[in-house]
Model the fold of this input.
Amino acid sequence: MPDAVLYQKEGRIAILTINRPEALNAMNSDFFYDLDAAINRVNEDPEVYVAIITGAGDRAFSAGGDFTEMAAQLTPEQAERRKNRPWGALHGYGACQKPLIAAVNGLAFGGGCELALSCDMIVAAESATFAVPEQSWGIVAGVFLFKGPRNIPMKIAMEMLCTGDPITAQRAYE
Done:
């Protein structure tokens, strides 16, 4: 199985690519472990000054959580691995000690939007859209509750939380 997050170094820049384009770069258990390992590599490499995280393909930065994995019957070992996955990068604690830039292409929905907001800076393609649709499934966008209002105006964050409607890159920029 290919890595869920690819690590590439170009000069003093580390490029972390969410590598699940067939699943709109949805975050499965492997993603969290691979992202944690990639961020540890960034932190430990004195040659790296900044890291960029992006999504493979042009359709999505990340569509958020992998609902296929969440709905699957897991073996006890898989369930344990999923339960103990590292959340540091998404929550922002114990994560990247160097500037981390989200290069958002396409969809940044749910956890993908939260991951982008957990970065120090967001650079978005004109085709980028951001949304937190969790409320339509009866779940809470927990990270967005904290990261959203700290990064975007409160009224826009409330609109995103209450409606689940996506906003364009242009509106996010404004």
